[in-house]
Amino acid sequence: MKIYDAVVIGAGVTGCAVARELSRYNGSFLTLERTPDVCEGTSKANSAIIHAGFDAQPGTLKARMNVRGNKMMDRLSKELDIPFKRIGALVTCLREEDLPQLKELFDRGIENGVEGLSLLTGDEARAVEPNLTDDVCGALSAETSGVVCPFELTLGLGESAAINGVEFSFDTRVTGLRREGEYWLIETEKGDIPAKTVVNAAGVYAGELHNMVCEDKLNIIPRKGEYCLLDKTAGGHVSRTVFQLPGKLGKGVLVSPTVHGNLLVGPTAVDVEDPEAANTTAEGLKEVAEKSGWAVKDVPMRQVITSFMGLRAHEEGDDFILGESADGFFDAAGIESPGLTSAPAIGEYLGGLIAEKLSLEQKESFEPMRRGVPRVAEMPIGERAVLIEKDPRYGNIICRCEEVSEGEILDAVHSVLGAKTLDGVKRRTRAGMGRCQAGFCSPRVMEILSRELGLDMTEIRKSGKDSQIVLEKTRKEAHGDGA
Q1: According to CATH, what is the number of the domain 83-147+221-311?
Q2: How far apart are CA 108 and CA 354, in angstroms?
Q3: pLDDT tens digits for 51-98?
Q4: Element (H, E) at 209
Q5: What is the 3-state secondary structure (H, E, C) of 45-103?
Q6: String of DSSP letters for 217-235
Q7: Where are the domains of the chain?
Q8: 3-state DSSP helix/strand/coil percent for the chain, to nearest 5?
Q9: Which distant-in-sequence residues (6+ apart) come within 8 Å of 413 by Cβ?
Q10: Alpha-carbon span 288 to 388, nearest angstrom
Q11: Which pLDDT value is given to residue 482?
């Protein structure tokens, strides 16, 4: 039986970041994921913000990882071939009596080492963001804040890890952990896996894994947030991310351009018990629409093309839990906002700790560059023509809203961690993310998945095991008992 140097549990953005850092070293590494793909949990549904680092309390792991992760993004976006824009952010204050809190955020950011911070009056803020409401009486400007695609960041990290030798096992649920002599034995539905070290990057399930092996128990609370995504015609309503002063449950409802040109509004913040919760609510979406209008006027909510819900893994101590919690067992738990920003730094930190513990040597053959699926619609006309002449399938448009071709979908299916579901194709190519929300292209994408993966149409899933799209019917069910 193969004994791994390290097994990472969870293929979200944190797990993939740890896996990529481990792949810099000579060793044997495996990432386990309970779903069919990377980026199926918390990482797929969030605000997509690269935070500047002014919000976290000085001296916390959140503050340290946030600021470091933010600084890593320019290099990472080039290495991983992912879209990233430093658009800046404004934290708006709506009451004169709350202006001291804005100054506290500024001072906290300076102590955390955040660059590009300044305090603005209400008029100064409206001068740079004309659609701010008249209620805005001041703002904190953070020039280093940015936006990224959380799907592509997670995919980029995961694919880079795989290119550099990390194995991935999907649809593999961890059911137990126990110590066997010098090794951990990871119990899964597919059998036991021995490892010298284990990384717990299981998101909302991280508390369960931690509590299997550690005397000091963690309580990870799933915190639900609902969002509305608006059409690209609304993407220019603001040019920066507009926050409101943070409260007890987070940074409040934000309004932000996305890296792909849409407008994002949300989230709510409600603690729930179910770590599998996925539903939006009329009450939640009404709250998003109402509270977004406190700082930004005339948000064009009639241009909403979809709504979604995400869960954050909140830990009662309100800080990241990082490091060796038991001999050879490393936690990456309680990773809520700014987890997306912090993930590269968390990967760097934990990867270094594990390499030091196991005395791993850096490999000379590490390949930092990864190339994603080409974006044909964004190519110069001449470059696009050359590509289509070489392979006409890049000229066969499958998704009209986002102008995604058959060639791009084939690249997504046959990439190093290839797409196996409709959502997997969507996250890699944006097919189905446009105004019609896959109403036109889903059947065509399903046909491609069926053909390329050798699957019957009844085997094609939207995402997980229970998301079958085409249901198999018996003759009686189809035609009635008298057929």
Answers
A1: 3.30.9.10
A2: 31
A3: 999 999 999 999 999 999 999 999 999 999 999 999 999 999 999 999
A4: helix 206-213
A5: CCCCEECCCCCCCCCCHHHHHHHHHHHHHHHHHHHHCCCEECCCEEEEECCHHHHHHHH
A6: ---EEEEEEEEEEE-GGGT
A7: 83-147+221-311, 376-459
A8: 35, 25, 40
A9: 419, 420, 425, 448, 449, 452, 453
A10: 43
A11: 44
Q: Do 84 and 69 contact (CB within 8 A), yes or no?
A: no
Cβ pair 181, 196 in contact under 8 A? no
414 given a catalytic annotation? no
Token code pair at residue 62? 């959140």
Domain 376-459 has CATH 1.10.10: yes
Contact 200, 7 (CB under 8 A): no
CA-CA distance, 264 to 246, in Å (whole number)?
18
Q: Tokens for 104?
A: 């506290």
**Burial of 292 by CB count in 10 Å (0-12 exposed, 13-18 middle, 19+ buried)?**
buried
Confidence of residue 465 (pLDDT cuts 50, 70, 90): confident
Cβ neighbour number for residue 78 with a 10 Å cutoff: 12
pLDDT tens-digit series, residues 16-57: 999 999 999 999 999 999 999 999 999 999 999 999 999 999
Q: Which tokens go with 446? A: 């399903």
Distance CA 328, CA 436 (A): 48
pLDDT of residue 473: 57
For the record, the structure tokens of 220 come out as 């990870």
Tell me the sheet residues that pair with 85.
147
Residue 351, pLDDT above cutoff 50? yes
**pTM assigned to the model:** 0.95
Could you give the percent of the chain with pLDDT greater than 90? Answer: 91
In the numeric block, the tokens 């690249």 are attached to 411
Q: Determine contact, residues 406/398, Cβ cutoff 8 Å.
A: yes
Of 246, 249, 322, whose CA–CA distance to 60 is shortest? Answer: 322
What does the block give as tokens for 306? 């979809």
Check if 83-147+221-311 and 376-459 are the same fold. Answer: no
Smallest CA-to-CA distance from 5 within 253, 315, 361, 313 is with 361
3-state secondary structure of 213: helix
DSSP string over 329-397 = EEEEE---TTHHHHHHHHHHHHHHHHHHHHTPPBPTT----------GGGS-HHHHHHHHHH-GGGGSE
Q: Catalytic pick from 51, 210, 237, 314?
A: 51
Contact criterion met (CB below 8 Å) for 394 and 406: yes
- Give residue 209's pLDDT: 97
Q: How far is CA 26 from CA 23, 197, 241, 363, 364, in A?
A: 7, 15, 41, 5, 9
- What is the b/e burial string over 414-442, where b = at least 16 CB atoms within 10 angstroms of the residue's CB? ebebbbbbbbbbbbbbbbbbbeeebebbb
CB neighbours of residue 116 within 10 Å: 13
